[in-house]
Design a protein that fits this description.
The complex is a heterodimer of chains A (70) and B (293). Helices cover 63% and strands 0% of the residues of chain A. By secondary structure, chain A is mainly α. The longest helix of chain A has 23 residues. With 293 residues, chain B is mainly alpha-helical. The chains are: A mainly alpha (70), B mainly alpha (293). The interface between A and B is medium-sized, with 17 and 15 residues.
């Protein structure tokens, strides 16, 4: 696979967004993107977004252009 | 509050049905009212009990495939750091990530709304019949595929089953796109009556895997989901939870029965098909519709 710098950059941006979402759900009491009616810290959502942030970085590493192997 | 005897019964039921393609959740919803057990799925202790049982089942799967998981974990970190896939273990690791993430996200988003279905055994009975239809359809497609391949390669037509047959693939031969679709369809198992292992085995068969490999693929894909489902609920265990002794006993029962079930299924699928499970699901679903009011 040749790799794509724009795709890798997009995945890094996505990773940052997921990381911000993880921090948000860890620290803020909210009902955003949840089924609950009372604001609460949704640590399950936080863990999922943290995992998605890491996986997006891994995907970015796969997508980046690699130096040719000699 | 659920009695210790009922929890151990549910543990054995979960151990058998979680890995067989017959829906453990569907059984937990349909079987107790069908045999007259005094138990409601809306009981506050039901989810904590399921959590403990999931941990037992996940432990059994990790033990069953302990060597595979050691290679998969090492393979994932090597592939992630290098940014490329160099060997089949690394490929399998990335496939499991690709197959698990969509199911995990959809599961997290839909888990709570779908919990209301746990109290509806008749609806679960309908989904059990649908699950039987999925298994039956997968075997129907597989038979058609076998006939087509046998016609194309008469040299292999004499093989009565695909074990050792080069026409059918191992898990590592699946494409990442196929794995992604399987991962999305896995979320269907949130519906009580639709089996996670059934969907993944059916998808594996349609994608050209051998039966035994389809089961291996299903079990490997199920492990992170079942483990996460258990671990994520642990902090929620409250006063409705079973006592520690009963919880440990239930997890062990679920784990031992799940291990034996998985070994049996892998051995059976060397020469057997999913049809008996399809007929069983259809029969149980029909019984639920007839006898549960």
């Amino acid at each position: 696979m040749k790799g794509s710098r724009p795709l890798a950059l997009a995945l890094v941006v996505l990773a940052v967004i997921f990381a911000i979402a993880a921090v948000f759900f860890f620290t803020v009491k909210t009902t955003f993107l949840t089924t609950g009616t009372h604001p609460a810290v949704h640590w399950k959502h936080a863990i999922v977004f943290a995992v998605l942030a890491v996986l997006s970085l891994v995907a970015a590493n796969f997508a980046r252009p690699k130096a040719a192997v000699r | 509050m659920l009695s210790a005897g009922l929890i151990l019964f549910l543990a054995a039921l979960q151990g058998v049905t979680e890995l067989f393609p017959v829906s453990s959740l569907g059984h937990a919803v349909v079987v107790p009212p069908l045999i007259g057990l005094n138990f409601r799925e809306t009981d506050p202790a039901f989810v904590p009990v399921l959590t403990v049982l999931h941990l037992g089942t996940a432990g059994a799967l990790l033990f069953l495939y302990r060597r595979d998981w050691a290679r998969i974990i090492v393979g994932f970190f090597r592939a992630a750091v290098r940014g490329r896939i160099d060997d089949p273990d690394q490929r399998l690791a990335i496939m499991l990530v690709v197959g698990t993430v969509p199911a995990g996200i959809i599961g997290l988003l839909l888990q709570d709304p779908l919990k209301t279905l746990f109290g509806n055994p008749r609806l679960a009975s309908v989904f059990l019949i649908v699950n039987g239809g999925i298994l039956f359809a997968a075997e129907m497609f597989r038979r058609r595929d076998e006939r087509r391949r046998a016609a194309a390669e008469p040299a292999h037509a004499a093989l009565v089953h695909e074990d050792g047959d080069p026409r059918f693939a191992r898990v590592e031969g699946l494409s990442l796109r196929t794995t992604l679709f399987v991962g999305i369809f896995q979320a269907g198992a949130l519906l009580p009556g639709i089996s996670r292992s059934g969907i993944t085995m059916a998808a594996g068969l349609v994608a050209g895997l051998r039966h035994e490999e389809a089961a291996r693929f299903s079990f490997l894909l199920a492990t992170p989901i079942i483990l996460a489902a258990g671990l994520l609920e642990v902090p929620s265990l409250g006063t409705d939870s079973p006592t520690a002794l009963v919880a440990i006993g239930a997890a062990i029962v679920a784990g031992v029965v799940a291990y034996a079930s998985a070994r049996f299924l892998l051995r059976y699928l060397r020469s057997g098909r999913l049809d008996p499970f399809a007929y069983y699901c259809a029969a149980l679903g029909a019984a639920g519709l007839v006898f549960i009011h």
